[in-house]
Design a protein that fits this description.
The protein has 6 helices and 16 strands. The chain has 2 domains: 173 residues, no CATH class; 116 residues, no CATH class. By secondary structure, it is α+β, with helices and mostly antiparallel strands. It is globular, with a radius of gyration of 21 Å. A hairpin with a 2-residue loop joins strand 6 and strand 7. The strands form 2 sheets. The protein has an 11-stranded mixed β-sheet with strand order 1-16-11-14-13-12-5-15-2-3-4. Strands 6, 7, 8, 9 and 10 form a 5-stranded antiparallel β-sheet that branches.
Amino acid sequence: MNVRYFRAGTHHGWVPARSVGTGRCQWRPLLSVGMARAWRCAGLRWAAGGPVLSWAGGRRSALARGKRVAFAVAEGGVRTCVGARGHACPVRAGVPGRSTGARCEECARLDRAHSVAADTVADDPRPYRVYLAWFGPGLVKVGITADERGTARLLEQGAVCFSWLGRGPLMAARRTEELLRAALGVPDRVPYARKRAVRAALPASEAERAAEIAGLHARAVALGGWPETLTPEPFRPVDHAGVFGIEGERRGPAAVAEVAELVAGGAVGGELVAAAGPDLHLATERGVVVLDTRLMTGWELVSAGGEPCAVPLRELGRAAAGVQDGLF
């Protein structure tokens, strides 16, 4: 994909770095919280009131639409591994700026060694639920989540609509997931790039958004070979478009670009107009830019008070209706 570096914007669109004049991005401190010292982001979580950014040390920043979100990466900073399972990386290894996991090879291996998602845990006694999730036209997946987590997993993945399919022990849920993959060709993963590409072209009504998983749910419950210990659940669609801010009148302009990576000395900022999964949609004077908050982890972040904007951006493809062909 085409990645370009930008430094400043005008009221007329996007300006490449080499043609910058005196224009500047007037960023403010993150969520208007003055950060005199460096902060390390621990990731984005979804709570009952919406998305929340967590910081090392336990502090949290609630993210409400309309808030100004802005920060800079410390000059000379290096992105370091976030460790695994609550333990710091013993060598503070450097990690690539475009890595969404922010872990070195060894810590990533340790993290996946105790992961339900990676199918390396088989003796979890908690009940699990199987779900069908819809992210946009043609983008459906099957997955499992611990019953006690409720809808948190679906919000974290950016599922626009979903329905439970069944409930039971972990291995029964896992076998049902595999059954749907084999018999109906339903994947268990959808790349985030594809999720972002279709958000601007979602059907207008909840019924339309639920139609695809309604048909798939009916086909799934009609299959033979379900584990006896898994209890089927009726089709009851849950729609998150309103929660994400991408429904009807709440839907803002389509995103024109996404942050490819953060860099030392770079800055990002804008008004939060939508949030889905780990993604923040920020309205800037250049247009709406999507920031995957997973790119923030591992960096030392500081207050941004008017520095020129300098981050690599990747223009979104034409898969989303209404997205312009180019940045300039």
